[in-house]
Design goal:
Elements: E1 12-16, H1 45-57, E2 63-67, H2 77-85, E3 92-97, H3 102-112, E4 116-120, H4 126-133, H5 138-151, E5 157-160, H6 171-181, E6 184-188, H7 207-214, E7 220-222, E8 234-238, E9 244-248, E10 261-264, E11 269-271, E12 280-281, H8 283-287, H9 292-304, H10 324-327
Parallel strand pairs: 1-2, 1-10, 2-3, 3-4, 4-5, 5-6, 6-9
Antiparallel strand pairs: 7-8, 8-9, 10-11, 11-12
Helix pairs in contact: 1-2, 2-3, 3-5
């Protein structure tokens, strides 16, 4: 098992396949983009599969989510998914994507063994989409969502970030649109993971504000009275169900106490927390001939030092040097 000193067991592995992205979302990176990792710095397809295999067989991972950057930009994505789908025990395989390119890859990914996708979509308006992402690709995302549903990558989940004065008035519209199509919507509080380090808590749309906006049109009741455990989203039934909506309050109501995640960056670094300021290098050990047992020991040591919480409310909190695009969602 992959444990920390607080007794939490990691069973959910997030694997970043690239730090590159074909959007320039204002809450993530500057318009000119970032300096991307060199090809030699990235784990190869074979190295990724080896580390995922190790994580599943030796460390108890039950879920594997491929992230980026934008993972659809990884040329070997389908073959990586296919190899991981052959593992026994077979982990649940999912993908977080901006949806651009999903229209042409959804069927192949499903056939390779991918179970489902999470697609980022912050607005229903093409002009607002361009304002937020600095790209005119709104229709491509909509086409990707339809392709994912057609391919059987179900349930199709949407992630949305509301930005004050930009798209926060669309909360109820987004929910209504998703309910009509059977998509599962989750709103996410904007987190301090932008490359510009310009995050301002006073400008963040909080979970309470999101719920207030939704309640102007919908009746929301808690989906369950039980604690959410490691699930990041608090879920609400909409108008009595069966439709629901989730809110991930990573800043105002963090779920650190039950966190079950471990992260592997595209350049082979283990991160025991999304907001960690340190990493453990598996790539160098891997390329130096380390055995699986030695790699597993490094990974266990990395997780053993995990802090009790992200500490965003702590005056001593320091935003990670790496932005979200380089860490992986």
């Amino acid at each position: 098992m992959l444990l920390d000193t607080f007794g939490r067991q990691a069973v959910d592995l997030r694997v970043s396949l690239t730090d590159r992205c074909n959007l320039r979302c204002t809450y993530c990176m500057p318009e000119e983009g970032l300096q991307w990792l060199g090809k030699s710095d990235l784990l190869t397809d074979e190295e990724i599969v080896r580390l995922v295999t190790l994580a599943v067989h030796d460390l108890g991972m039950r879920e594997v989510r491929f992230t980026g950057g934008e993972p659809l930009l990884r040329p070997g994505l389908v073959s990586i998914v296919a190899a991981c789908a052959q593992l026994a025990p077979r982990p649940e395989l999912s993908l977080t994507t901006n949806g651009i390119g999903l229209a042409r890859t959804a069927k192949a990914l499903r056939e390779a063994g991918l179970d489902r996708v999470n697609v980022s979509l912050d607005t229903l308006d093409p002009e607002t989409f361009h304002t937020l992402t600095r790209r005119s690709r709104h229709q491509d995302v909509l086409d990707g969502l339809a392709a994912a549903e057609s391919a059987g990558l179900l349930p199709v989940k949407l992630n949305a970030v509301l930005m004050r004065g930009v798209n926060d008035h669309e909360a109820a519209d987004l929910l209504g649109w998703c309910l009509e199509r059977g998509y599962q919507l989750r709103f996410i509080e904007q987190m301090p993971l932008d490359a510009q380090h310009g995050w301002d808590r006073s400008q963040m749309i909080t979970a309470e504000e999101i719920l207030e906006r939704l309640r102007t049109r919908f009746d929301l009741t808690p989906e369950t009275t039980a604690e959410r455990g490691a699930a990041p989203a608090e879920r609400w039934l909409v108008d009595g169900g069966p439709g629901s909506v989730g809110v991930i309050a990573s800043v105002t109501r963090p779920f650190c106490r039950a966190c079950d995640r471990t992260r592997l960056t595209a350049d082979g670094q283990v991160r025991n927390c999304l907001f960690a300021t340190g990493e453990t290098d598996l790539r160098t050990a891997l390329r130096s001939g380390a055995s699986d047992a030695e790699l597993a020991a490094l990974w266990r040591a990395a997780m053993w030092g995990k802090k009790a919480g992200a500490g965003i409310d702590d005056p001593e909190f320091h935003q990670p040097d790496r932005p979200m695009s380089a860490i992986g969602g």
